[in-house]
Amino acid sequence: MSKVKITGNASGSGVFTLTTPNTSTDRTITLPDGTGTLAFTTGDDDKLPLAGGTMTGILATNSQVNFTVASGGGNFIGINHTGNEAWTLDARSGTGSDDYLSVGISGGARAMSWHETGKVGIGTTAPQRTLHVKPSTNEDTGVLAETHSSGDAMSIYSKGSSSHNWATGLDNDGSGGNGFSIAYKANGYPSLSSNSRVTIHTTGQMVVPSGVRIGGDTTANTLDDYEIGTWTPTITCSSSGSYTLDTGANLAAYTKTGRVVHIQGGISVASQNSPSGTIRMSLPFTAFTSAKDTDYSLGSCTIDGAGGTIDNGIHIFAFGTSYVQFPLVSDSGSFSYLANGNVDSAWALKFSFSYIAA
């Protein structure tokens, strides 16, 4: 027959009291077998918690509290929120040999689970990837990562087997101004600002610094530029001298898509500055140079108020230079370029022309 022994402390004056419960139902305290003990230390905080109490300071360094759950799995910590839900921390057996911990509503949905495979589930106890997020109903799945006045938000880093690193996220402090960025860096963590490959601005505009490839994955398939604007042409001569444009008619427009440039406009010459030679007009972008005359580009042009007769009109012509010239073809078929001798001191050009830039 087991015995109960109560030993008093000779130097203490405290009284050990056992009080029966205020109920007709028996209550039993079973002490552990073997050498197990129910231990208390002398500190005021070293106590098991009663209602509204706390349990602090019980564990010594490198000690632990063990909870044993039946082989089929079950709850080992329960938290009851009076008037609300009850929560539990469970140890469960998953698919195959997978054991996992989960936290959630007692007897209901599990909010999160941690698996021995290294996977984590949010809203699911059977994660298919390292992190698996699943909503409890047919709603959008969302992960909210919030930042403040500076710093990137929701940065997701992906590292390849050969140290090729990608990142995606909100570039809160970059030139995109809260734009969404995809960045790449060969070694180390990419910056969503300085290493960006694609940025989508809050205005809806997309910036792709290196261009996009359409119809294939070669340099020939790359579209890396689009630009619209105006420029002020300059009129010079092949030998010396120039012409001054009227300030009210000195602009022309261009659109550049990839390497194809379209220009158009109407400009007026107000005066001349000792011109000598064939007349040239500057381009917004230098024309490309290639073999077998594939760099030739010819367009439409008219000249007004030249002060003389120009048989068959003029054309506009570019071939690998930063300027165009204006070919003339006589009735006899001879070819020449518009020169200072063909115009007066004041005249005007109207043109519409496309060419390939260098």
Walkthrough of the structure:
This protein has 358 residues and is mainly beta. It folds into three domains: 60 residues, no CATH class; 63 residues, no CATH class; 129 residues. The chain has no helices and 25 strands. The strands form five sheets. Strands 14, 15, 16, 17, 18, 19, 20, 21, 22 and 25 form a ten-stranded antiparallel β-sheet that branches. A hairpin with a 4-residue loop joins strand 4 and strand 5. It is rod-shaped and about 135 Å long. The termini are far apart.
Name the descriptors:
358 residues; mainly beta; 3 domains; 10-stranded antiparallel beta sheet; 6-stranded mixed beta sheet; 25 strands
Helix and strand run: EEEEEEEEEEEEEEEEEEEEEEEEE
Count every beta strand, where a strand is a DSSP E run of 2 or more residues: 25
Q: Helicity level, as a percent range?
A: under 10%
The helix-and-strand class reads: mainly beta
**Count of DSSP helices?**
0
Based on Cα principal axes, name the global outline: rod-shaped
